[in-house]
Design goal:
With 436 residues, this protein is an alpha/beta fold. The chain folds into 3 domains: 69 residues, MurE/MurF, N-terminal domain (Udp-n-acetylmuramoylalanyl-d-glutamate--2,6- Diaminopimelate Ligase, Chain: A, domain 1, 3-Layer(aba) Sandwich), CATH 3.40.1390.10; 215 residues, Mur-like, catalytic domain (UDP-N-acetylmuramoyl-L-alanine:D-glutamate ligase); 124 residues, Mur ligase, C-terminal domain (Protein-Tyrosine Phosphatase, Chain A, Alpha-Beta Complex), CATH 3.90.190. It contains 16 helices and 19 strands. Strands 6-7-5-8-9-10-11-12-13 form a 9-stranded mixed sheet, sandwiched between helices. Strands 14-15-19-16-17-18 form a 6-stranded mixed sheet. A 4-stranded parallel sheet has the order 1-2-3-4. Strand 11 and strand 12 form a beta hairpin. Helix 3 crosses helix 5 and helix 4 packs across helix 12. The protein is globular, with a radius of gyration of 23 Å. The termini are far apart.
């Protein structure tokens, strides 16, 4: 028995993984991961004292100590163990990536599939080189389908995650201007995200390809197994194409699809914005492909309420806040502004914070977003952060930080107003809720 098989046997006896010595589950396997500012090896013995069964370590000075499981590279071992565990499940493993909407799409797809199958899916934002292995290792024996979200900041990230999760199915939500600094531009984003297609192509996997999204059909060339889907003007039942109809966008999205009996099944979501129509359509398409009964698809999507700072509608006194401050890039910022402008409401105030990780494109992209927002006729436009400061124009309020804006809002309260909060996560616009 090699070291990986031995470690896996220990894992099966108590399938719990710990990476934080301050939160040790009794009998768990502690992985002494390294970060920019810490070395988990320094806490390996503490983890054992706290109840870990073994501590997986790559520190030679700990080799031979009781409870230490010595390896050459802790992170690689975690990833190898996750891949080994995934290989014990002959079930569909669906990978989801994209520039925008991947988390919402993952939540919607998972809700639909979970209505009919034992579904395991990524929790929160565990979508990177550590989060994906942890997600795979938490797959319970009864899993019938898995939905794995994959994030990427630079070329090679998706290929690395595919090599760990070995997806049998996959989809790209869209290609947009996200993480331009790491990808070096839109062409880099296209190449990076399509690493999922290339993995599926070389492993006889199946890709769901949204025909409404730019670039995806082009990038999917070469794939042998493709299921096309998309939003259409009317449902026709064209064979081989999963159709979804967008019936209404306000106040919330309303969609329809054909049942196996060719009846039109309508559903009323709790989602706003045309961009969310694509996310919901993806969930419907996968539900249809995996033969989830239409009434279960309907109930799952109608019951989904946005959370975690993504397209949330929050009432604050007489105000309504559109909270979309989990993250931002030029594509998602433009979508949010366009959707907000289309809302049939009275006074509108847009509060926009910096978009990060744009590299050399940052100034031009911030200026373009400012010009777009200024053309929408909002009652007030407020900018937050040093990047927007570089492009601000006379007449537009600007604050260096969220706390400074919060203090101003305390002295200048809004009433009977719709307020959009949109920024990259580190700007922390959600902290304004107490001041609105």
């Amino acid at each position: 028995m090699n070291s990986l098989e031995l470690l896996y046997q220990l894992f099966l006896e108590n399938p719990r993984i710990s990476t934080d010595s301050r939160q040790i589950a009794a009998g768990s396997l502690f992985f002494a991961l390294k970060g920019e500012h810490f070395d988990g090896n320094a806490f390996a013995l503490d983890a054992l004292a706290q109840g870990a069964r073994v501590a997986v370590s790559d520190d030679p000075s700990l080799a031979g100590k009781k409870g230490i499981f010595s390896v050459d590279h802790v992170l690689q071992t975690l990833q190898d163990l996750a891949r080994h565990h995934r290989r014990q499940f002959p079930v569909p493993v669906i990978a989801i990536t994209g520039s925008n909407g991947k988390t919402t799409t993952k939540e919607l797809v998972s809700a639909v599939l979970a209505s009919h199958y034992h579904t395991h899916f990524t929790k929160g934002n565990l979508n990177n080189h550590i989060g994906v292995p942890l997600t795979l290792l938490s797959m319970p024996p009864q899993t019938e389908v898995a939905v794995i979200e994959m994030g990427a900041n630079r070329p090679g990230d998706i290929a690395e995650l595919c090599a760990i999760a070995e997806p049998s199915h996959g989809l790209i939500t869209n290609i947009g201007k996200a993480h331009l600094e790491g990808f070096g531009g839109l062409e880099g984003v296209k190449a990076g995200k399509s690493e999922l297609y290339r993995f599926l192509e070389s492993h006889d996997g199946l890709a769901f390809v949204n025909q409404n999204e730019a670039f995806l059909q082009e990038l999917a060339q070469g794939l042998k197994l493709v299921v096309p889907y998309g939003i259409v003007e009317r449902l026709t039942g064209v064979p081989g194409f999963l159709e979804i109809q967008l019936l209404a966008e306000q106040p919330f999205l309303e969609l329809a699809f054909l049942t196996p009996e060719r009846r039109s099944q309508t559903l009323q979501t709790q989602l706003i914005g045309r961009y969310n129509a694509e996310n919901a359509a993806t969930a419907i398409a996968l539900g249809k492909y995996f033969k989830v009964p239409p009434e279960k698809i309907k109930k799952a999507i109608e019951s989904y309420i946005p959370s975690n700072l993504r397209s949330q509608l929050i009432r604050k006194g007489s105000n309504t806040v559109v909270m979309d401050a989990y993250n931002a890039n030029p594509t998602s910022m433009r979508n949010a502004i366009e959707t907000f402008a289309q809302l049939s409401s009275g006074k509108k105030v847009a509060i926009l914070g910096d978009m990060l990780e744009l590299g050399a494109a940052s100034e031009a992209e911030h200026r373009a977003i400012l010009e777009l927002a200024q053309g929408k006729g909002f009652e007030q436009l407020i900018l937050v952060g040093p990047l927007f400061e570089e492009v601000k124009t006379p007449g537009v309020l600007h604050f260096a930080s969220t706390p400074e804006l919060a203090a101003w809002l305390g002295q200048h309260p809004f009433s009977d107003t719709h307020i959009l909060l949109k920024a990259s996560r580190r700007i922390g616009l959600e902290k304004l809720l107490d001041s609105i």
